[in-house]
Amino acid sequence: MTHRILILGGTTEARQLAGKLAARADCLVTLSLAGRTESPVAQGVPVRTGGFGGADGLAAYLLEMRIDLLIDATHPYAAQISANAAQAARVAGVPVLALRRPGWEPVAGDRWTQVDTTVDAARALGPAPRRVFLALGRQEVAAFEAAPQHHYLIRSVDAVEPKLAVPDASYLLARGPFRETEERALLETHRIDVVVSKNSGGEATYGKIAAARALGIEVVMVRRPALPDVASAETVEALAAIVNQFGVDHFL
Ligand SMILES: NC(=O)c1ccc[n+]([C@@H]2O[C@H](COP(=O)([O-])OP(=O)(O)OC[C@H]3O[C@@H](n4cnc5c(N)ncnc54)[C@H](OP(=O)(O)O)[C@@H]3O)[C@@H](O)[C@H]2O)c1
């Protein structure tokens, strides 16, 4: 019997998990992307793109497509879609598993200031002008217009449009992973004195955190949002193992 699995993605792990599960003869995997990135990397499995229309829309999709298992492998800061996934699974009576990559913890030498939102992060930069590296994603940087006295270096996968309404900002287009040595060179070249980051967890974007530590630079770390309490695993391997060990039938 073939099992239909819908993976909510937009992360490297979602793509890797999709590949692993699609290799099973009894699984038909579809990966769902929000459609934010203009040219997403090839995913290797069938992809559908765009919002579902809230939790109700997702529940209707699960029923219409006869999905047997929903996997939420979205980014830890994508709180809305994770909440929708938990609710839609309940409404549609479809089992749900989440891939929850653990956050980074500060270690000796780190100079972190932890805040709850990007608005708080802009405030935490203080009144005196500083040279700030914003490694946040283009949806979040607008909050820094409230602190126009700083110089900003803004890195994103797609161009920030419209540009930030501040007098002194430069832009860098790049897609991770980013290694510590290159991140260190970037921070030095741009004479950065504070990094603003999400607590994404994982290896791919940790380079800037390690580089900031090595250079004694402050990191303003935006804490993770609250996510719904659903059965979860921390890694692609662990989540694939749950599906393999019990078989998809276990979740039905
Ligand atoms: N937030 C980040 O820092 C970040 C970083 C890297 C990658 N991403 C990825 O980018 C996507 C969007 O992030 P976000 O912060 O905008 O999410 P969000 O605020 O939680 O979601 C906003 C809306 O976007 C739609 N959506 C989000 N993810 C979707 C998916 N995988 N498939 C279909 N629709 C989706 C849903 O629309 P409807 O309500 O209409 O269904 C959702 O309500 C996510 O897939 C996430 O994994 C986010």
TrEMBL record:
The keyword Oxidoreductase applies. The keyword Oxidoreductase applies. Pfam families: CbiJ. GO terms for molecular function: oxidoreductase activity. It is an enzyme of class 1 (oxidoreductase). Pathway: Cofactor biosynthesis; adenosylcobalamin biosynthesis. Keywords: Cobalamin biosynthesis, Oxidoreductase. InterPro entries: Precorrin-6x_reduct (IPR003723). Its EC number is 1.3.1.106. This is Cobalt-precorrin-6A reductase. It comes from Mesorhizobium calcicola.
